[in-house]
Design a protein that fits this description.
- It is a single chain.
- This protein is 49% helix and 19% strand.
- It is flat and about 125 Å long.
- Strands 16-17-15-14-12-18 form a six-stranded mixed sheet, with helices on one face.
- It has 678 residues and is an alpha+beta fold.
Length: 678
């Protein structure tokens, strides 16, 4: 809620006082602090110079007792003196005031040259800050030693803080007193404005009988000694005569306020009764409500008829499910129905009176402006399908724009109607995709069955030839190549059959940790031959789920084989299991240190027959089958390259599989506690 006028005045007033107080506070604080510290430094130098002069004689005669008495007397001069000690020419202590032994570290903490009067260093001893003064003890240009004096800076700062607190209290009291006086002065003004505001609110609600201006002690009939009871100003205590039309005063000009005001300003009544700016505003407001009340009945009657017709038309338009809009010849929206407002997710008030540039993005607005301009110029209707982008995804609209003509075939605007066909488009796309995949599956199955038998014969005869020819020779190598390539073809055929086959799922309850363990038992030895290590971390509790165990194992086999192919040799594969972010979800992460996946290829890897591997290493069906199995189990799979937990420069890929368990599980974290570590 915004501040009112009174609040703004008070806020500004107190802000100025506060700013002024802060300026004074910081200035006084700085001056006092600098003055106190400077006074402390000067005091220390003064005490040090005086004491060094008194130390000359005891040092010459090596009167240690006298030196001890002098330093003890100096420490007793004030609570801010921490220590005093004297060093000889070789910086050996002659006497000091320390009760627990002389701290050797202080000897070199502050040095002074012979030609200097003294040296000051700020030392931090933990609990306190100490100003350390070094004063040379000199007689006849001969240096006898060095006097050291330590004064507490912390205690000086405490004194400064007390002064600052006093300044703060004084400033706050001043602000409160000034605020109290200011509120007394501002209250009459703000009350008058509040009264005017309340009156305007009442007028907006239709109450035109309000009275805003205060009643005056003197009125026009008293001042002019007038007794014309027929005058509209006579005995009218709420409206000033210069605002009323038809007054009978001889000096008045006939007509309303605009015509007579110049002459009324020269009248003695105006000079005696007119007040300050706020009073004049209140009186003019009362006159305005009086004028409005005179014409309101006719306007209300006409407005009632128009509102009834408008409400009826709007009700009809809002009941239509298609969105409808009416634009004028400049492209501004004149009227829209409820469906149009819901399509733009805006209120009607935010749409009417605005153009395409205010309601749509840059490219869309430019396109719609060109279409509207063409229709307005040519008068030819437009029928099209529009695609709109939104936070909930794209929308498809079937749009019809028709010009609205007036007399002489002049186009004065256009009507646009449209229907949301997003669901229809989605169904068409799904049907097209389903037909395409069905055709691909049938083609794959047919090709696989037709090729499988010849491949088996070729492979069998090739293997027989290998047994008949000598192992060392070109013929053996050629036949071995035939066997190898035939096996690759057989694998491709097997993948095609798996991709096209929709076998019946066997749903059981199993531990997903055990399923992964079984898969790792098959592939770990093969991976280790290429120095690829598998590191796994299982959740501490069994992760039970309902599903087709063999299909789920096929998912992990495909992902592990892909990780192995991406590494080739000398790398690591990491397998983590845990509970997902949502209750009753299981999350499995498989990441590797391989070459990774290019950003532009991530969106394509689940498409059938898409692969970045060489022809002899992959068919592009493994991840498609994996994706299908996960979708069949109502799960989802995410791909990150590089992995979420790794560094960008390290490369690698991470697949995260999330599967619903179908059981009641407690929510946990992926990398929480584990029962075993490999």
């Amino acid at each position: 809620m915004k501040l009112g006028f009174r609040g703004k005045i008070y806020l500004g007033f107190f802000s100025l006082l506060l700013i002024q107080g802060l300026v004074i506070f910081f200035w006084v604080s700085h001056v006092v602090k600098e003055s106190m510290l400077e006074e402390l430094k000067n005091r220390g130098i003064s005490i040090g110079i005086s004491l060094s002069a008194r130390m000359v004689e005891p040092i010459l005669v090596m009167d240690f007792l006298r030196m001890k008495v002098l330093v003890d007397e100096t420490v007793q001069l004030g609570d801010d003196i921490f220590y005093t000690f004297v060093l000889d020419e070789e910086d050996n202590p002659l006497t000091h005031t320390f009760k627990h032994g002389f701290p050797v570290g202080l000897k070199r903490s502050n040095t002074v040259l012979d030609n200097q009067k003294g040296s000051i260093q700020l030392l931090d001893i933990g609990e306190h800050l100490i100003y350390d003064y070094a004063i040379p003890v000199i007689i006849n240009d001969n240096r006898l030693g060095t006097l050291r004096l330590g004064l507490f800076r912390t205690r000086a700062e405490k004194a400064v803080n007390k002064i600052i607190i006093s300044v703060v209290v004084t400033i706050m009291l001043t602000i409160l007193i000034a605020g109290f006086i200011g509120s007394l002065l501002l209250n009459p003004v703000t009350k008058s404005i509040q009264k005017l505001h309340e009156s305007s609110e009442q007028a907006l609600r239709g109450n035109l009988d309000i009275r805003t201006a205060p009643m005056l002690k003197k009125n026009c009939w008293d001042i002019m000694q007038c007794h014309q009871k027929d005058c509209p100003a006579y005995k009218n205590f709420h409206h000033r005569c210069w605002y009323l039309a038809g007054t009978l005063c001889q000096t008045c000009v006939e007509g309303e306020y605009a015509k007579k005001m110049d002459s009324c300003q020269q009248c003695s009544v105006y000079k005696q009764c007119s007040g300050d700016e706020i009073q004049c505003l209140a009186e003019s407001f009362d006159a305005m409500t009086l004028s409005l009340r005179g014409n309101l009945s006719d306007l209300k009657s006409a407005e009632s008829i128009l509102n009834e017709q408008k409400a009826l038309l709007q009700m009809i338009l809002d009941a239509i499910p298609d969105f409808i809009s009416l634009q004028d010849h400049e492209g501004r929206y004149v009227s829209v129905n409820r469906a149009f407002c819901e399509m733009l997710n805006k209120n009607k008030e935010d749409i009417v009176g605005r153009g395409n540039d205010d309601l749509f993005s840059g490219n869309q607005a430019e396109l719609y402006n060109q279409e509207d301009k063409s229709i307005l110029e040519t008068g030819i209707p437009l029928v099209k399908e529009n695609r709109l982008s939104g936070s909930k995804g794209p929308k498809w609209l079937h749009v019809v724009k028709i010009p609205v003509s007036e007399v002489k075939d002049r186009v004065k605007g256009l009507v646009c109607s449209g229907r949301d066909i997003t669901q229809l488009k989605a169904v068409q796309e799904q049907l097209t995709q389903a037909q395409k995949m069905e055709s691909v599956g049938r083609l794959a199955a047919g090709v696989a069955h037709e090729i499988n038998t010849p491949l088996g014969i070729i492979l069998g005869y090739a293997q027989l030839l290998l047994e008949d020819v000598e192992k060392e020779g070109q013929i053996y190598d050629d036949v071995a190549t035939i066997v190898k390539q035939t096996k690759i073809c057989s694998k491709i055929v097997a993948d095609l059959l798996n991709f096209s086959r929709s076998g019946k799922s066997i749903i059981t309850e199993f531990n997903i940790n055990e399923a992964i363990e079984e898969v790792l038992g098959v592939v770990e030895h093969t991976f280790s031959l290429n120095h690829v290590m598998v590191k796994y971390e299982y959740h501490k509790e069994p992760l039970l789920m309902k599903g087709d165990k063999e299909k789920i194992k096929q998912v992990f086999i495909n992902l592990l084989n892909n990780a192995f192919d991406a590494i080739e040799e000398n790398g690591s594969i990491f397998v983590n299991t845990g509970i997902g972010e949502i209750q009753n979800e299981i999350q499995v992460s498989i990441s590797d240190t391989g070459i990774g996946i290019a950003k532009e290829n991530i969106s394509k890897i689940f498409e059938p027959f898409y692969t970045t591997k060489s022809p002899d290493k992959g068919t592009g069906l493994g991840l498609s089958v994996t994706f299908g199995i996960i979708k069949e189990h109502n799960g989802r799979i995410k791909v990150f390259s590089p992995p979420l937990s790794g560094k960008k420069e390290d490369g690698g890929t991470q697949f995260i599989v999330v599967l619903p368990s179908g059981l009641n599980m407690k929510k946990g974290e992926l990398n929480g506690e584990y029962s075993r570590t490999g």
